Amino acid sequence: MKKNIPYIILLTACILFYWISHRSYALQGSDLETMQLFRLFRGISNLIAFFVPVVLFVFYMLTSALMFSLLDEKFDSQKMIRTIAISFIPVLINCLVYLIVLHGIHAGQSATEMLNQQSFIGLTLSDMEEVSYIFWFGFYLLFALFTRHEFGMGYGKAVAVACVPTVLVVVGRWNLEFI
């Protein structure tokens, strides 16, 4: 059972991402429901949302292996699978909070009304961006701490393994916007 926990966490994340996508499309407009093309794209988008956690997991696995080789550290894929999966726990909590906020919104409202309608936990859709940053910070914090613990490396190397690949992707994206 202990070996299956990382896969259970990953599957749970996939299901939560799917539910968020599904609920978001349900709120977007009954006017578009009559269009066959909209229903097709909604289904494709929900399927893509389901696989986002898998893509993220693969990204973190591959870039971690690369960072380990650059830092001249010994990489153990089983330890890294466990580390990344446990690090996804704040993301799972974020998804649950986001679903609560989405289910507190009633369909048929304007976009502004939807963004500012408070859920029973007091958050709005417009609050969720900042809240999500906090939970993703929790992901990277856990990723660095568990990498340090599991592989016995220093804090600097653990932070480098956890954060440098993502920072490089973000910086690359910003550079492409300026071109």
Chart the SSEs and their pairings:
Elements: H1 5-28, H2 36-70, H3 77-87, H4 89-103, H5 111-116, H6 128-151, H7 155-178
Helix pairs in contact: 1-2, 1-3, 1-4, 2-3, 2-7, 3-6, 4-6, 6-7
Describe the structure.
The protein has about 180 residues and is mainly α. It has one domain. The chain contains seven helices and no strands. The longest helix has about 35 residues. The protein starts with a helix and ends with a helix. The mean pLDDT is about 85.
Tally of discrete structural domains: 1
- Characterize the biggest β-sheet: none
Tell me roughly what share of residues is in helical segments. over 70%
Structural class: mainly alpha
- Please mark out the parts with pLDDT under 50 across 5 or more consecutive residues, or reply none: none
Strand content: under 5%
In N-to-C order, the SSE pattern is: HHHHHHH
Q: Count all strands and give the number.
A: 0
Task: Provide mean pLDDT, rounded.
Answer: 86
Please give the count of helices. 7
Distance between the termini: 50 Å
| Shape assignment | globular
Q: Please state the CA-atom Rg, rounded to the nearest Å.
A: 19 Å
Question: Which features does this protein show?
Answer:
single chain; 179 residues; mainly alpha; 0% strand
Q: How would you sum up this structure in a few lines?
A:
With 179 residues, the chain is mainly alpha-helical.
